[in-house]
Hints:
The complex is a heterodimer of chains A (113) and B (119). Chain A is 0% helix and 50% strand. Chain A has strands at 3-6, 11-14, 19-21, 23-26, 32-38, 44-50, 56-59, 62-65, 75-77, 86-93, 102-103, 107-112. In chain A, strands 2, 5, 6, 10, 11 and 12 form a 6-stranded mixed sheet that branches. A 4-stranded antiparallel sheet of chain A has the order 3-9-8-7, with no helix packed on it. Helix content of chain B is 0%, strand content 50%. Chains A and B meet through strand 5 and strand 6 of A and strand 5, strand 9 and strand 10 of B.
Amino acid sequence: GNSVTQMEGPVTLSEEAFLTINCTYTATGYPSLFWYVQYPGEGLQLLLKATKADDKGSNKGFEATYRKETTSFHLEKGSVQVSDSAVYFCALRPLSGYSTLTFGKGTMLLVSP
Amino acid sequence: GAVVSQHPSWVICKSGTSVKIECRSLDFQATTMFWYRQFPKQSLMLMATSNEGSKATYEQGVEKDKFLINHASLTLSTLTVTSAHPEDSSFYICSASGPGSDSGPDTQYFGPGTRLTVL
């Protein structure tokens, strides 16, 4: 079956530090890959996505590259801000038909001033 | 845009009562809507998927008679928690996908969630 594995948190960084949150997946074929962000007490917001191998999704300074050879979709940001503190979810959607998402367990990011 | 709203944002009810949560897509047609449940500090658990005008498809282990889902229009789905008990207390999140949203019909857009507390 499909699965997504994320690094466990919390990830604690100082402001302006470099961020990497690892995500690897197991799926048949070529799924679409997503990063969602959840701020405290809120629902999930789509952060970025990639639909095929070597695609790079980017938004708000965050980037992730779809690497089929390593089945990975690591999230990176060059300089984090306190406002980036949230829980980040990696997810995949299978290629065939259905929109059902499979989520990782989420990684909490805490950024201190 | 691709905005999904939920109402109410939080609700407290007594054990044994029923609670209805609404999920609306505000600026696109949601041909498919999803309902998730999220426990504290955990990931989202898909409860059911509904296509407009059809019966919902429930995930294994989810009681369809307890969690009633209706998706009667392209912009509205409702989740009714019947005879709620304290163990039903959770954060319920809906999402929607469909044509006309920013990133295409296969991307899910999430509502802000509804926190249910059953006393």
